[in-house]
Design brief:
This protein is mainly α and about 170 residues long. It contains 9 helices and no strands. The longest helix has 22 residues. The radius of gyration is 17 Å and the shape is globular. It starts with 7 loop residues before the first helix and ends with a helix. Keywords: Sigma factor, Transcription, Transcription regulation. Belongs to the sigma-70 factor family. ECF subfamily. This is Sigma-70 family RNA polymerase sigma factor. InterPro entries: RNA_pol_sigma-70-like (IPR039425), RNA_pol_sigma-70_dom (IPR014284), RNA_pol_sigma70_r2 (IPR007627), RNA_pol_sigma70_r4_t2 (IPR013249), RNA_pol_sigma_r2 (IPR013325), RNA_pol_sigma_r3/r4-like (IPR013324), WH-like_DNA-bd_sf (IPR036388).
């Protein structure tokens, strides 16, 4: 999706919860979501299901998207994950072999990998992104992160695990 098709004012109003802006954002994004789902999913029925699920997730989580620039990457990662989930549900997609995925990542040029990692961080929901950045970039301990966020160790560990899983999924697709 082209971020140019969505005005910054519309995006910000939707992010802040304006019902008319959210409806307009959904209407503007739907054709691109559907087109991407048709190209990504294995069947037209899965593409329609993935489109509907992506629209629902966008409706529920538009307030968590930090910037218009991150919007497209976030939205398309939602569609990609939903297509994969539907394919696995029907047994059409094999389970991912972590060693093969890691080898493919290491084979990428370093500059491309850096951009992909930055995009993966940007695509994370804020509560996961904060924990992952504190741990993996700032190299803070779990206890330091828990104090900084006012959360329990278990919450921090769960968020870190989920953030890393989402990033791994983003990078291996």
């Amino acid at each position: 999706m082209s971020a140019a098709a969505i005005s910054p004012n519309l995006f910000e109003a939707a992010r802040l919860g304006d019902p008319q802006a959210i409806a307009s954002l959904l209407e503007t994004a739907q054709p691109d979501i559907r087109r991407y789902a048709r190209a990504t999913c294995r069947s037209s029925a899965d593409a329609e299901d993935a489109t509907q699920e992506a629209m629902w997730i966008l409706f529920r989580h538009v307030g968590t998207i930090r910037s218009l620039l991150a919007f497209s990457a976030w939205l398309f990662s939602v569609v990609r994950r939903e297509c994969l989930r539907l394919a696995r549900k029907t047994g059409l997609a094999p389970a991912i072999d972590d060693s093969e995925a890691e080898a493919a990542l290491l084979a990428r040029p370093e500059a491309d990998l850096r951009l992909d990692v930055a995009a993966a961080f940007e695509a994370l929901p804020p509560h996961y992104r904060d924990v992952a950045l504190m741990r993996d970039v700032k190299e803070m301990t779990i206890d330091e992160i828990a104090v900084a966020l006012g959360a329990s160790r278990q919450t921090v560990k769960a968020r870190l695990h989920r953030a890393r899983a989402l990033m791994r999924e983003y990078l291996t697709r």
